[in-house]
Amino acid sequence: MTRFGAVDCGTNSIRLLITDVRRGDDGVLELTELHRVMEIVRLGEGVDATGRLADAALQRVREALTGFAELMRVERVEAVRMVATSASRDASNRDDFFSMTREILADWGVEAQVISGDEEAALSFRGAVDDFHPEEGPFCVIDVGGGSTEVVVGDYDGTVHAAASVPMGSVRLTERFLVDSPPTPEQLKRAHDYVAGQVERVLAEVPVAGARTIVGCAGTYTTLSALAQGLETYDPSAIHLSTLRFSALRSLNQSVLATDRRTLAENPVMHPGRADVFAGGVMVIDGLMDMFEAVNGAAKEKGSRGDAVPLEFHVSEKDILDGIVAGLVDERLARAQG
């Protein structure tokens, strides 16, 4: 069929997925991942305080995206979509960012597109559940980013029942609350209270109690899985579809929050650009565990065990990038049929 490229530029990182899509002899589409690349660019550095994208951050994005474009040319990628989330939505100098992406991606005639929190959640959901079984649904998919967290409940076929995007992410919490490393008890309390308020918004908007399987995607979850397994190197095959039980994860998170950034960065499974904001992501996940435990407690009080959400996260290496590719494939098929 063709090769597709998906680029996601968030608050903390910019990532690329190149997928080869062909139709097999049986007529079924076969998707083969060729490249999945991540660069820490910290586009959202200081945005929470200044309201604008820093020049140095824009330069980091330019360098990374230029490398992505060259790789896509080498791999003969035919169709590309780039999405921009969280940090670029409200920045006063956002036009500088979009004109840069238009210049670099001129070969494909595209530029970065700002997507809403709802669309971000839907794309993450579609990618994250791809390797699960339909009967494991309904699913609650959680994507913890640098500036925001998306929570969506839906079915395997992509039907979304409800979604919420709330302003809590690893970079946002670190810059706003977790100044010291390791954070002080007071900083942790302030972060905890902030996350608790955002979690209340999620509970009001998303029926998380109706989910049978909780799926966590993106770097905080995948790195926690690598740490929990004691991996000596970051191994996506070991991380994908792994399970993080709340009881054990609580202990691991406490250990992370008591560890300074330099020590975290020395762990071989930790991307060096993630270590300094990792505590913020962990605080988000702690708050989400509080939410699901409260849901379970309410279900037990009602005597309805069927409404209890299993107290474990299933970790997916697939995420919004895979959802973007799926959308590009849908568009290509629709044009072919039309």
Automatic annotation (TrEMBL):
Coiled coil: none annotated. It comes from the Bacteria. InterPro entries: ATPase_NBD (IPR043129), GppA/Ppx_hydrolase (IPR050273), Ppx_GppA_N (IPR003695). Its EC number is 3.6.1.11, 3.6.1.40. Residues 26-306 form the Ppx/GppA phosphatase N-terminal domain. GO terms for molecular function: exopolyphosphatase activity; guanosine-5'-triphosphate,3'-diphosphate diphosphatase activity. Gene3D superfamilies: 3.30.420.40, Exopolyphosphatase. Domain 2. Keywords: Hydrolase. It is an enzyme of class 3 (hydrolase). The keyword Hydrolase applies. It holds the Pfam family Ppx-GppA. This is Exopolyphosphatase/guanosine-5'-triphosphate, 3'-diphosphate pyrophosphatase.
